[in-house]
Amino acid sequence: MHVAEGKAKAGDLGAILTCVRDYIGLAVIEILHFRQGGSKMNLAVVDIHSLDEEGPKATMVALQILELVSTEPQTKSDELTWWWLQRYIQLINNEGGPLLQQDLVDWIPGKLFHPITLQIIYNTTNHPIWLLNHSNLECTLAHA
User: Fold this and answer.
1) Is residue 59 within 8 Å of residue 51, measured between CB atoms?
2) Which pLDDT belongs to residue 2?
3) Which residue from 34, 44, 77, 121 has the fewest beta carbons nearer than 10 Å?
């Protein structure tokens, strides 16, 4: 999230509250694009304050939910971490058909979006991997 610039951009990560059966938790999402005020035009960047708008000026966020895997701490000083392995959670059951982009995308009002921080590390093939600290996710959940 480019808070210092006052902007939210496509590709930024955030979190939303989600309910699965009897549990409420946090889903980590990637922004695809935005729409404002009922417009059908996709926007790559919006003012951070526009995410709080309601009613006819509301900003909607197109998103994909990241599939994360955890790494248990090896020592007491280590922290539980979550890794994104470049997969998204399928939101629509397509009855065994081919997986389409629309099966992975949802829309939410911008006011439900919560920015999160992450680390980018590089694996042995010098490929970037997103790393999320569990404590940061817990703080986001507490404020959501």
Assistant:
1) yes
2) 53
3) 77
